Amino acid sequence: MKKALFVVTLIVLLSTLSFAGVTYKDGKVIFTFKAQANVVYLAGTFNNWSPIAWAMKLVDGVWTYEAELKPGTYQYKFVIDGKTWKEDPEAPAYVDDGFGGKNGIFTLTDDGKIVAPEGTTQAQTQQGGKKYILNEKRENTIFVDADGYVIIRYYNKDAKQPYIAGSFNNWKADDTPLYFIEDGWWEAVLELQPGVYEYKFVVDGNWIPDPNAFAYTDDGFGGLNAVIEVAREGGKLVVKAPATAVKEGKQEEAKVEEKKPVATVGKVTPGLSVVDGKVVFAVKKENAQEAYLAGSFNGWNPRAQKMQLIDGYWVTTLALQPGVHKYKFVFVIGGNDVWEEDPLAPAYEPDGFGGKNGVFKLVEKDGKLAIEGVESQAGGLPVKGKYEFTYSFKLDATKYLVFTGAPTTKLTLMFVPNSDITVSLVYGGATVDSALFNLKNDKLNVGFHYKTPWNLPAGTKAKDTGLVFSYKVMEKVSVIFGLGYTSNKLPMVGGLEYNCLTLVAASDYYATGYSVAARYDIEKPFGLSVEGLYNLANSSYYVAMSFSTEQFAIYGNFDGSKLFTEAKTEIFGFGLYANGTYTLGSTNYAVYGQISVDKYKFGIGYEKSSTTNAVSVVLGRFDNVYDVKLTIKNTNLQNIMGATTLTLSGVVSF
């Protein structure tokens, strides 16, 4: 009986572990890897470490790739879901990857054998594959509750919203939040089947192994993963250390994996440069609360390399080895991660998701590092844009569905050859609907705008066509002067910008007569923008405010008669959005609410005026490339066929 129980337990343990291998058959090297993933790529020296070039196929639960390679020595890793780099747990041998982890390595001989190169670290061959180290200093913070859920508690009085990520949720950093209990204690509530799981806490961008875990194991990146085994004993779930966990003489303590400090630089050079043997990345993004650097050198981890704000530029430095590197910036704007390519990258290549990555080659010349461009692949021009379309229909009692007019389309193109020049054009059909040209250097900023407002306080109420100049007279102080366009007047605006405050006075620029406007912006520790406008001639006014954190964002404006507000947040993986409009002194108002999850959205709206009551339903799908929605609107529920319109609209970015 004991022998049978041991065999069953061993089978359960082995079924939870990843396995992989490298073999040679029929002239091809065969890579295999077992893991829970949506997609797995093979990256290595044979494909220039591309994280998306060689997609593996899922065959009978095993990810597989066959490659025709010439005899030689190769290094490799697996890329899970395009972002998590993982070494082969059954590689023939290992070498240091230069980032605190290791690469698998093998030599393909002339006679078709896979062997470990001389001088490399041999792979472990003991049963079970991974080595688990018991945590002898733990406190009892992990248990199974009365309903069969696994509870993992964590103490951190300074945490805002910690998450737990692990092999049970495909290491998604923001998929499983912890719940606040009291006095700095948080807990994760997990529904787990019997098996061995690895995990970490994600706290304000830091990946932290549980200090009270049952055991630890190498995470493959120079740190530790917490480990827990869920088992069924006596008909009930229990939690414990893995059966193969062992004691170790001097145990490494779990600690916060802090980001490497960003080296300070002198005068910021936009784009890429080399300073003291390190690559310096610098980019300007005025509305970002935080910025990070992700690329092929850090497994595309969106929180691995934090950037500092220096002289208006987000800056970070990295010590990189010569070779080809790919990267993007991750900006935190209103609590959302926005991935953008570097407008000053030496070259580009498609990122596989409709956008492009920056690419550069780091070479060593005369003992010094230098940056070179590589040949851009298709789509590498510094041009981006979007295409918008709208098709309108109405229900008809005899024809069922008929067009209500010609479709409307809009094409927006933005050309950014470098950080000093920006050109934007918006086409509506064959004509230019609006345009913007911006030329700047360290002190002078000149802009021409046509039928699009400039970024001034209360800019939406200002002239939409004209010229604007700003000149930096001293550190954090700039003077502003602008001219608008009308047929019989010369609208003017002028003012000062000091640090976070902008103050302007205008004549016929916002409305007839003299006006004053101001705006105050801050980016840390939260996003806040307050702006206002007052016209001296007719005493009209306009105020607006926005506030954002990593968890939510709100916005509102009021012009003396109409109030508009909107808010958005994300809770447990669901995106929530709502807005409303109300006209004072009337019965006119409109409200709209929307929920989105997993690239789908659903919304309901209601609009009331003196002449009509309208109900609308919105169904849509979106990702980082497109956003398409169908709006069904009815103005008389008693007349469905005669009072219902359907609008299909969307945006495609490129």
Automatic annotation (TrEMBL):
Gene3D superfamilies: Immunoglobulins (2.60.40.10). Residues 26-105, 149-227, 276-359 form the CBM20 domain. It comes from the Bacteria. GO terms for molecular function: hydrolase activity; starch binding. Pfam families: AMPK1_CBM (PF16561). Keywords: Hydrolase, Signal. CDD domains: E_set_AMPKbeta_like_N, E_set_Isoamylase_like_N. Residues 1-20 form the signal peptide. The keyword Transcription regulation does not apply. Belongs to the 5'-AMP-activated protein kinase beta subunit family. This is Glycoside hydrolase family 13.
